[in-house]
Structure to design on (1018 residues):
């Protein structure tokens, strides 16, 4: 599988750091909460005493830049202090002090998020978990791994590979993202179809609460019904109610056989037919079912040279991955399935990767769209989920809506393309609107129109990216007032001074 | 698969209802909370106006008995009123009133629990969900089912069978238990190894909170990262913080091919070897890996005639189930695995079911132990989880401990057998101590000794049965004081008057 490191983006962009806009200038609705203290020299001295000389960055704009800014250069804060604790106790000491002093804190993992959740908005202290990166233990009978939250996903996956196991999740940013950040944002990604969500695979967490209390729930048991499963609250909470410092996770056996195939199809209806049939024929060996449209392919071609494409172009493509324990059996199942798809006219063309290199090529196409989009002058990125049969209706509707609004379809239109790809199996669409520039008319045509469309079809306005600062004001489109009220009550219970990741998820208390 | 309906037990036991001891007489530590109001005539009139003439049972000891008593006749309460609401709104009206009047309530599903969680301790009102039993919807592309909480698990499973799908969980009580109760107790059961826990498969819940607020979180999306995943709190909360009224759950494709094999083995070390090898060779088609010891088999034989056994007896047995989409492939994988187990001397004998009847026979053996144990004069039942390699050490240690304590091993010993069976794949042991009678000396030898043993090995004192009234006082063996404190805070947040299922899970506030 290809490695698309989010960190690669930094190399291109740090030069331009002076030109990256601050979040508060771009989203002017944000106001710094008055009750947060401003960092003092005494505070810095205290933190130095906790983390030691190599455990912090203070008052150095260049060094602070990658912690203040997300990899897309879309969000930028003004923190003067990054702390890199090495132990759970240090995290506890830091938070206890911050809570007492009312100093705001942004917990940060690999900083590969897409919604600005992991960078400060104002002067919040960045609490980076990158120095907490040790594997704590592994049980080779049960496949249960325990590790520090700052371990990089790909490092864990490679470490497990030697033992015949794998991480139950995989995503494009695996070379940079932390397992703690994955859990804090409830990352979905490419293996969810097969191995399920982190709510099922995470068995235990160690979390430091806002007041410094260490919540030790590092269970290594598949079954434990002794009281409320409180760790679940922190999965997907985006660092707003506690800082995850340790993780216990169930890892599946690494498959002995992996196959990857790509199909070219004429319609999204055919994509759905191919998916339904794959659930029945490939069933237990199906590990990914991804789709993209021709616009996505053309966007890739504009910025890179794809290694694996068909001779002809088709309106839709799907990538199918199987993972199993017996190569002959899997080959037979896949061949039968592909023949059926061709015979039935569901697919117009198909290729099957013949070796590891070809598997990488096919995956690099699917995983390359995010990077390709990043090279456009401006992109409106959306990550929505809805019933599978509505996915492409949403894309077509948006194209028409933008045309009707006069911002798309003409030579001089600000919007240049509407690109769709995503995880069919999860009902998850990544909708990307490329533009010559961000402009208010286009923005106001897209939002809240898109969110209303999603809400009308019982979808989610954020399938896997989370809310961060980008989407928190739209929470009402996916959650009822009662749910939002209970979220606020939960936040107040766990972080009464609201020091953890302020301005994110639930913005107004 | 065989159907072992928990309701079958009622037929045998209702005759003896006068002889069933009240919980408070058996566990004399319980004191009725003073702040709960006693039911008045006016209250009953109000409830009648909500649920109508057929929606309640009042003041009729015979009719109330099955709601006041668990199926093992181990726990018995003294409720005078059972309510059977038909809609979420009725549940809301009932709870709003109870909360205002401080009337205690026990939510009840199929009443098939093992720890007394679903029956009253004193005079709590029983809120039965049995009249809320409608399927709300099903999406045949995604396999997502929505249903009322009172639907019986087996009814749902049979309904899905016609559509080529199945419920992701299965357990002995499936003919009686409700899906709402399954979720409220985070039921594990036989399919957890393959399809994971309910924390992963439950996509949405409708919950009525203690004050009557309806929390509508009936998402039908595989991915939805918009805020805290609050529904998770209710999974496994045993009805103490809200009443589940609706369920949205991801259901897997029903397997076209199912195989079941049984092995006879000489040691628990061999059981572990067989398990580890099955994870590698049967991998994606492995759907159950159960074990029992010869004591369990002998207990079964004492009370019933097993249809499927080997000629010789062995110290240990495992039952292996595979489920896949291609019968030929599965047969080949299973045959290879079994041959390897025999050739390597890991298994001493093996049988493979040749048809559906034989599959049922093998499963009825594994599923019959609970029923067989129920025919003993007295049983101390435990459901613990721990690292797989410790499971049988625990059993052997307990036998020795009881012998050393003078209650086991002699003709006149009160303890007659120590029986072990369980889910190897989940590290879950069902430890059953059969006795001529419940006696204080034996009790004090088992508890807290067993819980201390489990805690020492980072296990859980309740793997899948929950805490109920039976184990709530021992919570401290599995959860830290910080965790318990946060559970209490959560309880106070969601049920400030403590009207929901009092005396259970967390007993003292």
């Amino acid at each position: 599988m290809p490695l698309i490191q989010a960190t690669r983006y930094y190399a291109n962009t740090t030069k331009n750091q002076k030109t990256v806009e601050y979040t508060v200038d771009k989203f002017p609705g944000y106001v710094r909460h008055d009750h947060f203290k401003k960092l003092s020299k005494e505070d810095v001295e205290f933190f130095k005493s906790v983390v030691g000389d190599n455990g912090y960055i203070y008052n150095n704009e260049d060094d602070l830049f990658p912690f203040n800014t997300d990899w897309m250069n879309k969000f930028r804060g003004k923190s003067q202090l990054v702390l890199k604790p090495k132990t759970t106790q240090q995290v506890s000491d830091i938070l206890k002090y911050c809570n007492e002093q009312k100093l705001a804190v942004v917990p940060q993992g690999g900083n590969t998020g897409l919604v600005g959740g992991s960078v400060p908005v104002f002067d919040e202290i960045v609490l980076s978990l990158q120095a907490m990166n040790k594997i704590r233990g592994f049980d080779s009978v049960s496949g249960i791994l325990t590790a520090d939250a700052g371990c990089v996903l790909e490092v864990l996956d490679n470490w497990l590979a030697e033992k015949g196991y794998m991480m139950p999740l995989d995503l494009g940013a695996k070379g940079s993202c932390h397992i703690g950040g994955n859990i804090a944002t409830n990352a979905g990604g490419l293996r969810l179809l097969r191995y399920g969500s982190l709510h099922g695979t995470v068995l235990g967490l160690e979390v430091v609460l806002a007041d410094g209390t260490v919540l030790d729930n590092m269970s290594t048991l598949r079954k434990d019904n002794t009281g409320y499963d409180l760790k679940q609250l922190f999965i997907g909470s985006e660092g707003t109610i506690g800082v995850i410092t340790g993780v216990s996770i169930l890892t599946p056996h690494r498959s002995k056989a992996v196959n990857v195939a790509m199909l070219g199809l004429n319609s999204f209806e055919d994509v759905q037919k191919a998916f339904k049939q794959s659930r029945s024929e490939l069933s237990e060996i199906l590990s990914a079912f991804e789709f993209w449209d021709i616009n996505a392919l053309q966007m890739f071609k504009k910025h890179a040279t794809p290694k694996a494409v068909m001779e002809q172009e088709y309106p839709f493509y799907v990538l199918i991955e199987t993972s199993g324990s017996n190569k002959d059996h899997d080959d037979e199942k896949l061949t039968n399935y592909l023949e059926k798809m061709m015979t039935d006219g569901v697919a117009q063309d198909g290729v099957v990767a013949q070796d590891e290199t070809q598997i990488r090529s096919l995956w690099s196409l699917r995983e390359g769209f995010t990077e390709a989009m990043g090279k456009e002058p401006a992109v409106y990125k959306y990550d929505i989920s809805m019933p599978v049969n509505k996915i492409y209706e949403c894309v077509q509707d948006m194209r028409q809506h933008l045309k009707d609004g006069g911002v798309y379809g003409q030579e001089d239109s600000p919007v240049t393309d509407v690109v769709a790809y995503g995880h069919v199996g999860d009902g998850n669409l990544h909708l990307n609107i490329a533009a010559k520039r961000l402009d208010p008319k286009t923005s106001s045509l897209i939002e809240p129109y898109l969110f209303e469309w999603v809400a009308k079809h019982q979808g989610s306005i954020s399938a896997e990216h989370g809310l961060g600062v980008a989407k928190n004001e739209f929470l009402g489109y996916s959650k009822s007032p009662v749910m939002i009220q209970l979220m606020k009550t939960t936040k107040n219970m766990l972080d009464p001074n609201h020091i953890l990741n302020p301005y994110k998820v639930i913005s107004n208390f």
Remarks:
- The two ends of chain A are 43 Å apart (CA to CA).
